[in-house]
Amino acid sequence: MNAVIVDDEPLARLGIRSLLQKHSDMRIVAECTNGPDAIAAIRQENPDVVFLDIQMPELDGFGVLKSLDLRKLPYIIFVTAYDQYAVRAFDVNALDYLLKPFDDKRFEEALERARTAMGQEDSNKLREKVQSLIERLEKKNYLDRLAVKENDRIRCIRCDEIDWIGSKGNYVEIHSGKFSHLLREIISRLEIQLDPAKFIRIHRTTIVNVDRIRELQPFFHGGYRVIMNDGTQLTLSRRFRDKVRGRLGQGI
């Protein structure tokens, strides 16, 4: 079977590559770090199976699927750090996924299902499953407030009051006005629960409320300083620049 690996994280691609190389019947025909390259590779190589990361800057995994001809769709194994809502959506539509971080056993199970499905699954059914999944996830209701534990109290913070969010390991620090609050959550999981029309990732450790951005200033190595309304200076990394450009304009 010919395989394409799509993931913007080098370690994630290395992990999948290493596991696939243990199987003599698997041939990796392309590795892609972003959505546009994935679309081109899938169209050119016509692979049997694609390991597709969902969360990628600029164009995510679902954007990749929307750009493909679903009548000729390869077997998709989604690679995701999505929350339980999305996991239930995968289960409901009987589509395979690897939830990061996954172990060797879980990978082998997914690969065996791909082998079994080759030539057996009706292409129309697969197309319907993928379309249903996309529709289900796009209807997701985004958070409008966060509940943060402070001592013996639970404080509710409206999302539209948040200025920016910073990652601190297994926690995120919510900045709202003069106050900051710690929430036990990793930033990638919180990102997908926030309305993308209001919040945008500018760095692997930072999410900002777009309405709180005052200006952007050129910085080293193609990056930018993001100046918030209260004067806070944050960094826009090159990795997320295209995504921000899509929201704020081509001047970046």
State the domain count. Answer: 2
Indicate the structural class: alpha/beta
Uncertain residue ranges: none
Calculate the terminal CA-CA distance, rounded to whole Å.
41 Å
Give the structure's gist in a few sentences:
This protein has helices spanning 10-20, 35-45, 61-67, 84-92, 104-117, 123-138, 187-191, 241-248; strands at 2-6, 27-32, 49-53, 75-80, 97-99, 145-150, 153-158, 164-168, 171-176, 179-183, 199-203, 206-209, 213-218, 224-228, 233-236. With 252 residues, the chain is of the alpha/beta class.
Structure characterization notes:
This protein is of the alpha/beta class and 252 residues long. The chain folds into two domains: 2-138, Rossmann fold (3-Layer(aba) Sandwich), CATH 3.40.50; 145-248, Beta Barrel (OB fold (Dihydrolipoamide Acetyltransferase, E2P)). It has eight helices and 15 strands. The protein has helices at 10-20, 35-45, 61-67, 84-92, 104-117, 123-138, 187-191, 241-248, and strands spanning 2-6, 27-32, 49-53, 75-80, 97-99, 145-150, 153-158, 164-168, 171-176, 179-183, 199-203, 206-209, 213-218, 224-228, 233-236. The strands form four sheets. It has a five-stranded parallel beta sheet, with helices on both faces. Helix 2 (35-45) packs across helix 3 (61-67). The longest helix is centred in the middle third of the chain and has 16 residues, at 123-138. The protein is globular, with a radius of gyration of 20 Å.
